[in-house]
Write a structure and sequence with these properties.
The complex is a heterotrimer.
Chain A lengths: L13 H8 L9 H12 L4 H10 L4 H10 L11 E6 L2 H5 L2 H12 L12 E6 L11 E3 L2 E3 L7 H6 L4
Parallel strand pairs in A: 1-2
Antiparallel strand pairs in A: 1-3, 3-4
Helix pairs in contact in A: 1-2, 3-4
Chain B lengths: L9 H16 L12 E6 L2 H5 L2 H14 L6 E6 L11 E4 L3 E3 L7 H11 L24 H4 L17 H6 L4 H9 L1 H11 L11 H10 L5 E7 L8 H8 L1 H15 L1 E8 L4 H16 L15 E6 L9 H8 L23 E5 H13 L1 H5 L9 E8 L5 E6 L4 H8 L9 E6 L5 E4 L9 H6 L8 E6 L4 H15 L5 H18 L7 H15 L3 H5 L2 H20 L13 E3 L9 H5 L5 E2 L7 E2 L9 H5 L5 E3 L1
Parallel strand pairs in B: 1-2, 5-6, 5-8, 6-7, 9-13
Antiparallel strand pairs in B: 1-3, 3-4, 9-10, 11-12, 11-13, 14-17, 15-16
Helix pairs in contact in B: 7-11, 7-14, 8-9, 8-11, 10-11, 10-12, 11-14, 18-19, 18-22, 19-20, 20-22
Chain C lengths: L3 E6 L2 E6 L4 H7 L23 E4 L6 E2 L10 E3 L3 H16 L15 H8 L23 E3 L9 H9 L5 E4 L6 E4 L15 H5 L5 E3 L3 H9 L4 E6 L3 H8 L9 H11 L3 E4 H22 L5 E2 L4 H10 L13 H17 L6 E7 L3 H6 L14 E4 H10 L21 H4 L6 H15 L17 E8 L2 E9 L1 H12 L8 E5 L19 H15 L9 H11 L5 H7 L10
Parallel strand pairs in C: 1-5, 10-11, 10-13, 12-17, 13-14, 16-17
Antiparallel strand pairs in C: 1-2, 3-4, 3-5, 6-9, 7-8, 15-16
Helix pairs in contact in C: 7-13, 9-11, 9-15
Classes of the chains: A alpha+beta, B alpha/beta, C alpha/beta.
Amino acid sequence: MACQCSATGEFDLAPLMEILSEYKDNPKGALIPVLQKAQGVYGYLPKPVLETIARELRLTTAEVFGVVTFYAQFHLNPRGKHIIRVCQGTACHVRGGAKILEAVSEHLKVKPGETTRDLEFTLETVACLGACGLAPVMMVDDNTHGRLNPLDIPGILDSYLS
Amino acid sequence: MTKYARLASAADLRKVREGAKHKIVLRRYDRQPSDKKFQILVCGGTGCTSSGSKSVRAAFEESLKKHGLDHSCEVVTTGCHGFCELGPLVIVYPGGNFYVRVKAEDCEEIVTKTVMEGKLVERLLFQGRTGKTPRKTYKEMAFYSLQNRLVLRNCGRIDPEDIEEYIASGGYEGLAKALEMGPEKTLEEVKASGLRGRGGAGFPTGRKWEFTRMAEGSPKYMCCNADEGDPGAFMDRSVLEGDPHAVLEGMLIGAWAVGATEGYVYVRAEYPLAIHRLQVAMRQAEEMGLLGDNILGTDFCFHLKIKEGAGAFVCGEETALLQSIEGKRGMPRPRPPFPAQSGVWGKPTVLNNVETFANVARIITDGAAAYTSLGTEKSPGTKVFALTGKVTNTGLVEVPMGTSMRQIIFDIGAGIKGGKKFKAVQIGGPSGACLPESLLDSPVDYDSLTAAGAMMGSGGLVVVDEDTCMVDLARFFLTFTQAESCGKCTPCREGSKRMLEILERICDGRGKEGDIEELERLAHTMQQSALCALGQTAPNPVLSTLRFFRHEYEAHIHDKKCPAKACTNLMEYWIDPEKCIGCGMCARACPVNAISGEKRQPHVIDTKKCIKCGTCITKCKVQAVTRR
Amino acid sequence: MSKTVTLTIDGQTLTVPAGYSIWEAAHQVGINIPNLCHHPALRPEGSCRVCVVKVKGARNLSASCVTKVAEGMEVSTHTPEVLAVRKNIVELLLANHPRDCLSCARSGNCELQKIASDMGIRKIPYNYNRPPMKKDEGNPSITRDPAKCILCGRCVRMCSEVQGIGVYGFTWRGINSRVSPAFDLPLDKATCTYCGQCAKVCPTGAITIHNDTDKVWAALRDPEKIVMVQTAPSVRVGLSEALGGKPGDIVTGKMVAALRQLGFDKVFDTNWSADLTIMEEGTEFIHRLKDGGVMPMITSCSPGWVNYMEMFYPELIPHFSTAKSPQAMFGTMLKTYYAQKMNIDPAKIVSVSIMPCTAKKFEAQRPELSASGFRDVDVVLTTVELGQMIREAGLNFQALPDEQFDPLMGVGSGAGTIFGTTGGVMEAAVRTAYELLTGKGLDPLELAPVRGMEGIKEATLTIGKTRVKVAVAHNLANARKVCEAIKAGNPHGWHFIEIMACPGGCINGGGQPISLEMDTPVKRQEALYTDDRNLPIRKSHENPEVQALYREFLGEPNGHKAHQLLHTHYREQIRG
């Protein structure tokens, strides 16, 4: 296959092609799982990846872009090594979830949706983590931190720095 | 690596059941002096896992090994017990001694005392509401004894990653029986049970299935909505984590009844453990010939796939969910056609939620008559609620339909935390309503809730106390709705934005004359004209708080006061000079040095400097700092 | 299931075909339920909710465009409650819509503006606080102003479902929802063919035609310039609608008079160069048929279609006829033949064309279309822009006398006139090719199988001993089917294919007046066939001015000079 010129230069599309090969014969409904797997490999969904997915699954790039921007899970830009998700659910809200978010934001000097300059952390909010009994809660990567107090935040976050 | 042998018939299934009984038998009986075998059940639900139950399990294993008990005492990881507040939870069988907030360093003591000597570790028992009456077992705890756990029967009681434990406790008998009964009689039984969809609106499940059975088109699909997105709800997650086979069995029975051969479980990606348990369960069921081709040796085939959501609340709406399964933007489409006629890929499709499916096997095994004996006439069975917020016991509770809200909150939930006053309970998530004290005694069932202007929703119950501002709570829900609106239809996309704007200005103290009326007008427009149920019900939190707590809105708008002293712009922090002991903790903690005072003298907050961060309140040992 | 359904709407009992929406049923009895996302040419979506009505027994109001009629249904379309809800919905849309109606390209025929006016909205109760959005003016054909988008999705459905391209999609979510090409690319970087169908269905000023009238006014003001204009076949049937007339009015004479009054030095007819195109393209086809050239041959006069092929099926480029489009041929001849004949310095000529087409603006800018040493066409105006110039000049169009085109390039045959509709180019080509090959006139002259609005039409002709199979496709989704068939080895055995990018052909081009009536394209089509029947000359090769051109200037069709001036080439476009 002809190279898609320098725009794709920095991306090794081989792993993507491997993901896509699984769906080649049955592209029906494959878009979201393919995007999930591709993001798993690349950490985010750069343009050449999306263009390749569109071409291979026989979709328009507008459809693919539309799906990527619809779902909160997909990202068009690189993300931090650690993903912080502060719960904004009802239980967390009534137990001070906003203060937790503020504390994280303050400590890392980023707003929700942003990534720290050193690419260590990306801060996000989440509607509900479903761990309301532990409110207020945040998740860092796959770890849930519950019964939080704003004062706990710096210590928890620093523990993730290598 | 096949671990389980394929079952060729119902008789094979029953053989396996007999053979596996030993796995769960200890959990039935009280402790006898002669007991030589033990099981330690460690909760592996999301709540307990995040509180450290994995290290607890490891500590038990180490300790048992040390004492040479690793052959006579087994450590079993179970699903959620529902009492997440007190996790990690540990139960020792036989006897069922129930330990809460167990840490790795407590395990040695539990092994030496409880397992080896049959004694209790008093300090790890649940201390009861007063903190003075330790409870030894489940049965002694109001939280559990007042529940009726039908859907949650296996949660916390079996190892969800071992299909034999499920079978040993009667699992897949419903499927076997349904296969013997034939699809028509199976469908009749579900119809007779009066089971109503647990996902929100309470549509009769049997009728939904019948429509799909009658619909033209092949293949038919049986799909499970596990996109539990309501903030404050985690029933479905717990069921999937604690008893995934119950959901699979329900789906299989449904597929058999309607003639479906394909299916999807749509799970939100935020539930990795639930997805894992479901995958394990599906693999085991496939190995045993309970899923896939020629189930239990019959001609019945059912193929199931998991679809992971990608982070969109609206995908809980059925037509949006179907779009998402097809790989599109999860935007609802008008109904009709209903999924029963035209669902996934345009084929007849049943879509029920997790809890609905978890009811099905029981209906078939015990019969519709037994099922209807629970609950009310029009809402038979039980309902699982996620009880959260300012209530003492938070967690999952399952009660018969018709139980009053008061029983749930005050008996099972042990009332309001910290001796505060109950104000309202929010039921049904962003589509639901806030009910005041005056409605606490009305029964909780589909029709009574609708009559009260609320809805069952998926079953989140968020209790709020006097410190919660109802306008702020409505604002919170609208923030959620507005952020999660798919953007397709005008009333929801633009209406929720404008409602939120008005609520924000009211909470900020910028509310003006006519705001309440404008909220009502927008709410009416959305209810009447939004495309999907989520948009139509999005104004409910505003309308119900306006209905029962209108005075709070008025106080914000007219008097620029927040009665709950929760809206930052409408309250100030104040140190009660009578209570202040002048320790200076607050002053040292204040980030803007707004607190001053001599040592051992009452301190004062400079409200001009104060940024209302609330740090002083958390620091004060004598509760001298308050909002006013 | 019965084939009809009886229901009552506002107390009126009516019987309509089963499967009708409430909106369609109401429309049939003269009740126009306002709507914004619905369009008769598109699949209903039910998203704007402006068309809500009360259906007795329903819990909520129902969107009439997506709610099917049912036996015994009782519908009320304008109860006070319905009107209040509708009004609130429109207020919500207006609140997030820029308030610069007075200077908007759609001022005066904006659907949102009209609905707001019909509803008597005098105050917008919410503040405008939409984040600023960038206009896309980076191409010669279509301007996008996303701030004016009300997210009705008509363009999305038009581009993906009718045209089969899918340049636009809904992006982001909720209040941040947008309609945009992937990655928010400008249209010249996306796979846009500039067919302009999106602009034709857009209810507001979010997608509009790039306006070039200023350039024409400037040329008309310049005493050094000689400004000459050609008018495409479909303009005579569309222009009336832009000036208060009905669909299907043929206003050739008034159009010529108006152009003269506006100050054009010469007014010519693109029908003339359509006839010329037939001579070149027909001859090319005969050569390919006789000499075993690349088959099937495909027409190349629709610039949206040319863009489509260059982007999506570049491997099929050898199938294209190399003949330039009538617009380009006209432009070349104007600056060579006409200039020579009239002894005018071609550098002084401003070649203006009036086209039903937005993609023609792009075509005119193709670098290869300058065989005369000058641009074939300097400025392209759409029918809509000409209508605006006539209004701007204050001409009483309907009262103008009928005037004739100027000579030398002003006579067109009936074959030239039907170039404006799907099937017309093929019919015109067959009339000439048949006669050139057999020496006999085609009888009957009208090629019925390629008429009408069917998406892909076919006809088989016996020309002498050869059976020739022709096909006609319109709209780009059908074009795709044709391309796929050719790629699959041409199983239908087609020899000659006509493709037009727009549904219905040029009569319904992106530059034609906007119409919300389903039957407008059909009325325009019928009008062109009537024009054809009424013209004294109905075959391209019988056009005396075309005959004179070959005699006096070009020599033989497809001869050396003709090839140099009237043929072009194509190349792959890589975008997106």
